[in-house]
Design brief:
about 475 residues, alpha+beta, Phosphorylase Kinase, domain 1, Jelly Rolls, Transferase(Phosphotransferase), domain 1, 3 domains, six-stranded mixed β-sheet, six-stranded antiparallel β-sheet, 27 strands
């Protein structure tokens, strides 16, 4: 009972937000079932906002060239609106040079960012107010996605709405949307302080289907129904602490269920570790954890289903399960694993050492992209305590020597393991394999023999100049 309660509280603690809606420069408003947060406070060039589970803020830089008059950062409609959701476009936030919105505490993954615009300062009549022209650049996550954006031109006139949609990847729980004055357009027509970027609303939503599955609590009945009562026909793998089953939820979502031994202390430790690590870390190259189940004697973890099983099976599994991987695909897999590790080591809020990177813990999706899995042995990377030895865990043959022999753990241990996996990908050979009637041979030993043989060939070159060239290369 205490274990179930602890897990439920833990899941609630680490739940992140997967959407964000802001009515820039305006009051809180409900549009199509979504609540757009209030952003009507005009005071100051920066603000941090907390609304329920949503955390966001903005900063504005620059000074309007307006003879020391008071700067206004929000504006109200001056033209006749021709929009479907007029409440979103009655007000807007304005900046002289740079306007940046930040979304915080977002779950990592892929997002669609919708930016809503309407030119509400200029007019479309034949008066002086129609002479203004506004141009600015749009950056998402530091990348230029739209240059010299002109609201009125894109919308087909002033007072008309236009929504620009962009793809964004959140890897460190933070989204940055920056609008930057391009230094073009008018600065004093129809009057001063009307140039610079202007935005009406922001809506951000995760591209993962809205399943409400992010670190959810599942019932044992749901899991049994999904896996046909853990039917052996649905078994797709065997982890270090239990089997893995394929299942289908009532809404059609395909899942993978890892069944851990509840009576094992190691199983309990891995269970909590997986929930704590993966639920707080979401990335395109990490397997997604949907939730868990703690009921009766069952400890169950529910993941996204990854179609092509493990990298190990794709490379050197039974022939009927192997996948022909060309060199560009092998390169893509190596790069994907490296990006996943870079996120764990450097980009995430929690710095994590996986401790068990190997080809069986890398899954391959339908598009042959890698996803790092199995975080049961993962540890927080405590840089100031690298001299402290830890209980050695992992798989021999993939462990860094300093960790295997002395227990010194840093993120370099994962880098070493990645190097072994990269050799497996390039060579198509398992790290540990057996020659007929001979003892087992490690892949690293095999590579060392090849390197030694290649050096012997090099040293047999007679021409001294050629030897120098080879040595330089």
């Amino acid at each position: 009972m205490w274990f179930s309660l602890m897990v439920a509280n833990f899941v609630q603690l680490v739940t992140a937000s997967y959407s964000l809606h802001i009515n820039c420069g305006g009051k809180m408003v409900a549009i199509n079932g979504s609540i757009y947060d209030d952003d009507s406070d005009a005071g100051g060039p920066a603000r941090f906002q907390h609304s329920g589970t949503k955390y966001w803020g903005f900063s504005s830089t620059g000074d309007f060239m307006d003879n020391d008059s008071t700067d206004y950062y929000t504006v109200s409609n001056q033209s006749k609106l021709s929009t479907t959701n007029a409440e979103l476009y009655m007000n807007a936030r304005l900046s002289p040079i740079s306007l940046t919105y930040y979304g915080f505490c977002l779950g990592n993954g892929n997002y669609t960012v919708n930016l809503h615009f309407a030119e509400i300062i200029f007019t479309d009549d034949q008066t002086y107010n129609s002479l203004g022209r506004r141009l600015f650049d749009i950056y998402i996550q530091g990348k230029l996605v739209n240059k010299d954006f002109n609201i009125a031109k894109e919308a087909g006139g002033v007072g008309k709405e236009v929504t620009k949609s962009f793809h964004a990847i959140v890897t460190n729980t933070t989204l940055e949307i920056r609008l930057y004055w391009a230094g073009k357009g008018t600065t004093s027509l129809p009057y001063r302080s009307v140039y610079g970027p202007l935005i009406s609303a922001i809506s951000v939503k995760s591209e993962v289907r809205d399943l409400d599955l992010h670190t959810s609590i599942f019932t044992l009945r749901q899991i049994k129904a999904a896996t046909n009562n853990f039917d052996f026909a649905n078994k797709i793998g065997e982890g270090g602490f239990g089997p893995v089953f394929k299942g289908i939820l009532s809404d059609g979502t395909i899942i993978a269920v890892k069944q851990l031994a509840s009576k094992s202390k190691q199983g309990n430790r891995e269970f909590l570790n997986e929930i704590g690590m993966i639920s707080a870390l979401q990335h395109p190259y990490l397997v997604k954890l949907y939730g868990c189940c703690v009921e009766r004697d069952q400890l169950l973890l529910v993941y996204e289903y990854v179609e092509n099983n493990s990298l190990a099976r794709a490379l050197f599994g039974p022939e009927e399960h192997q996948i022909k991987l060309d060199w560009p695909t092998r390169h893509k897999i190596c790069v994907g694993i490296a990006r996943g590790l870079a996120y764990l080591h450097e980009e995430s809020r929690l710095k994590i050492v996986h401790r068990d990177i190997k080809s069986t813990n890398v899954l391959i999706d339908k598009d042959l992209n890698p996803k790092i899995s199995d975080f049961g042995l993962a540890r927080l990377d405590e840089e100031e305590n690298t001299h402290i030895t830890t209980r050695i865990a992992g798989t021999y043959g993939y462990m860094a020597p300093e960790y295997a022999m002395h227990g010194y753990l840093t993120d370099k241990a994962d880098v070493y393991s990645f190097g072994v996996v990269a050799l497996e990908i390039v060579s198509g050979k398992n790290n540990i394999y057996r020659r007929q009637n001979e003892k087992s041979l490690h892949l690293l030993e095999w590579v060392s023999i090849l390197m030694l043989y290649s050096y012997q060939i090099i040293f047999k070159i007679n021409d001294e100049r050629d030897k120098n060239i080879v040595r330089f290369i």
